[in-house]
């Protein structure tokens, strides 16, 4: 039976009283194509002359009942900030019902009771679903570094046959699940736009989009029959083992020939909602309980606005420690910081709040409008037309170091210290007795600690220091007159310390070689650095390297990796502890 006949039959099952003209309007087929399809269905014994199903037709329907469904609910939903810090997307509430429970209810109404739910992020929140008969939870332990292609590969291949594949973040106004599915299909919106891979033809087939044909927006819902499910399962297993496919959606495993076997099922853009952002949820259900986010409450109260005044929420992925997002309200953009995994063990938020209060009169940092000393939530105004310092551009570096030097000379005071060597031990302790990944860690640490007395003897000044004074935290902001104003942002680690430690921190983060380290020191001292102070800065560089190496090892236990940065910090500890020790020895022998 050809594709057109199956599509017409499916429509007749749903709308048995439709005339040929109504079928034509519903399907977008020509009237002649509908008539030919009905003729074919009669000739094959599926339809009687009155267009009613024959016994053979009834058997066909019975043989094509959907058996399974797979709901993909493992992902972070990174664009869903700030709600994704409190709930996984599938459990967002719309009109007093969570997305996933609505999908399950609609599946049950369509006769599907065997449902696999692939979970990962906040998997425990889905546990209650296991109490329902027929629902099986599958855990994707790689949800943080692999996309839903991997999630679907975890499902029993037999459960992909005669099955719906469903994203958990979608809401349908009307039930999309039917008691009979005669052919495989993939659902797309009637909304046509650029940037899409496929478009739906009038024959309900897929063709590659091009300059002449814009593509249909994919919905993500699909139905697989036995033959396609088998070939898809084979390809899924291959792709899931391929690192190049780790970030792919499951549709990647549908080969071009498979796409051409699937029909398009078109849905009106107004009949469904994919909820990827806070604003999409707000537009769909302004009364959803999940709109009551602490971060949103802070924003509305601090800025004196309503939730509907918050627009263009975007994730700021940059930043090793925090999960921040940017948004627009009125004529300005703002940044809301939500501390990331493990951060509260690393940073004293009360100390941070005290630092921002102390430096506020200097107008040197980002404009902080709100900071919570309990949980670290921070709201600041975005600095427009800005760029980071280029650590390889010495004109940039000289301006940044001059700003740092000027700040140190202001002698700003707070009531807490940043104890470098205590922090080294603190970060090491977060490994809870587990040995370092570096086999000579104990020897390197001993070499760094041996420099402690020299540092103490040559520490002449104690003032508020940034501690994390790296190139990325210096912002050049273009003003209306074309000049650039320099800011130093993100004072999380700041405390009372020797200002020369900030020089070492800048060098460590920039991963400078020896010549660049010396040039940086000369920038700060304008080529007049005493040799014992240079040696002290080398010693600080060794200690800073060990500090941030321990920091990286702790963060790696949380699933975060910092590539070459972590090894570079350990090399600073190893190399500069030797360099500083040798210079101390030579200085003592000369005395």
Element layout with pairings:
Layout (H helix, E strand, L loop, with lengths): L2 H12 L5 H8 L3 H13 L11 H8 L5 E6 L19 E2 L2 E2 H11 L4 E6 L15 E5 L8 H6 L9 E5 L2 E3 L12 E9 L4 E3 L5 E3 L6 E10 L1 H15 L15 H6 L1 E5 L4 E3 L3 H7 L9 H10 L7 E6 L5 E8 L2 E8 L3 H4 L2 H11 L8 E4 L6 E4 L4 E3 L5 H17 L9 H10 L11 H9 L2 H6 L5 E3 L8 E5 L5 E5 L6 E3 L2 H11 L3 H12 L5 H26 L7 H27 L1
Parallel strand pairs: 1-4, 1-6, 4-5, 8-12
Antiparallel strand pairs: 2-3, 6-11, 7-13, 8-11, 9-10, 14-15, 15-16, 16-18, 17-18, 19-21, 20-23, 21-22
Distance between the termini: 99 Å
- Total helices: the number is 20
User: If strands are numbered along the chain, what order do they take across the biggest sheet?
Assistant: 5-4-1-6-11-8-12
- Seen as an oligomer or otherwise, the chain set is single chain
Mean pLDDT: 91
Per DSSP, what share of the residues sits in E-state strands of 2 or more residues?
Answer: 15-25%
Rg on CA atoms, Å: 31 Å
Helix content: 25-40%
**SSE class:** alpha+beta
How would the global form be characterised?
Answer: elongated
Low-confidence stretches: 318-322
Summarize the biggest pleated sheet.
7 strands, mixed
Count of strand segments:
23
Short recap of the structure:
The protein has 591 residues and is of the alpha+beta class. It contains 20 helices and 23 strands. The longest helix has 27 residues, at 564-590.
């Amino acid at each position: 039976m050809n594709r057109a006949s199956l599509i017409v039959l499916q429509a007749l099952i749903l709308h048995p009283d439709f005339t040929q003209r109504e079928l034509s309007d519903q399907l977008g087929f020509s009237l002649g194509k509908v008539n030919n399809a009905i003729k074919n269905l009669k000739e094959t014994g599926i339809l009687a002359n009155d267009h009613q199903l024959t016994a053979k037709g009834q058997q066909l329907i019975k043989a094509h009942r959907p058996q399974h469904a797979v709901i993909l609910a493992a992902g972070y939903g990174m664009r869903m900030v700030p709600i994704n810090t409190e709930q996984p997307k599938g459990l967002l509430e719309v009109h007093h019902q969570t997305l996933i429970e609505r999908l399950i209810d609609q599946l049950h109404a369509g006769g599907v009771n065997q449902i696999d739910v692939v979970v990962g992020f906040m998997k425990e929140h889905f546990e209650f679903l296991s109490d329902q008969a027929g629902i099986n939870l599958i855990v994707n332990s790689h949800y943080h570094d692999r996309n839903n292609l991997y999630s679907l590969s975890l499902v029993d291949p037999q459960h992909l046959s005669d099955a719906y594949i469903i994203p958990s973040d979608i809401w349908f106004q009307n039930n999309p699940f039917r008691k009979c599915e005669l052919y495989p299909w993939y659902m797309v919106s009637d909304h046509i736009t650029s940037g899409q891979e496929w478009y739906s033809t009038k024959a309900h087939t897929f063709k590659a989009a091009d300059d002449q044909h814009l593509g249909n927006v994919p919905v993500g819902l699909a139905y697989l029959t036995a033959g396609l499910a088998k070939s898809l399962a084979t390809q899924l297993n291959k792709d899931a083992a391929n690192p190049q496919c780790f970030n792919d959606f499951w549709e990647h495993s549908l080969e071009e020939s498979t796409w051409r076997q699937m029909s398009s099922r078109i849905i009106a853009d107004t009949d469904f909602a994919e909820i990827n952002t806070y604003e999409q949820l707000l537009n769909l259900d302004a009364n959803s309980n999940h709109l009551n986010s602490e971060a949103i409450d802070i924003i509305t109260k601090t800025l004196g606005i309503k939730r509907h005044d918050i627009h263009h929420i975007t994730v700021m992925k940059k930043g090793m420690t925090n999960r921040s997002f940017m948004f627009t309200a009125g004529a300005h953009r703002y940044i809301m910081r939500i501390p990331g995994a493990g951060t509260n063990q690393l940073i004293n938020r009360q100390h941070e709040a005290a630092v921002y209060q102390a430096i506020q009169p200097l107008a040197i940092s980002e404009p902080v409008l709100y900071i919570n000393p309990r949980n670290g939530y921070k709201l600041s105004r975005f600095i427009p037309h800005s760029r980071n310092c280029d650590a390889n551009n010495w004109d940039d570096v000289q301006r940044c170091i001059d700003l740092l030097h000027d700040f140190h000379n202001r002698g700003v005071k707070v009531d807490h210290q940043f104890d470098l060597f205590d922090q080294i031990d603190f970060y090491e302790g977060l490994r809870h007795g587990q040995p370092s990944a570096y086999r000579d860690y104990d020897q390197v640490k001993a070499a760094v600690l041996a420099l402690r007395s020299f540092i103490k003897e040559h520490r002449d000044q104690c003032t508020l220091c940034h501690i994390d004074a790296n190139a990325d935290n210096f912002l050049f902001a273009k003003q209306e007159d074309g000049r650039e104003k320099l800011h130093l942002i993100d004072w999380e680690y700041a405390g009372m310390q020797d200002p020369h430690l900030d020089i070492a921190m800048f060098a460590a983060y920039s991963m400078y070689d020896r010549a660049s380290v010396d040039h940086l020191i000369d920038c700060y001292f304008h080529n007049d650095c005493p040799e014992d102070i240079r040696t002290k800065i080398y010693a600080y560089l060794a200690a800073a390297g060990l500090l941030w190496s321990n920091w990286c090892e702790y963060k790696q236990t949380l699933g975060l990796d910092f590539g070459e940065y972590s090894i570079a910090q350990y090399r600073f500890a190893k190399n500069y502890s030797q360099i500083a020790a040798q210079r101390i020895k030579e200085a003592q022998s000369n005395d």
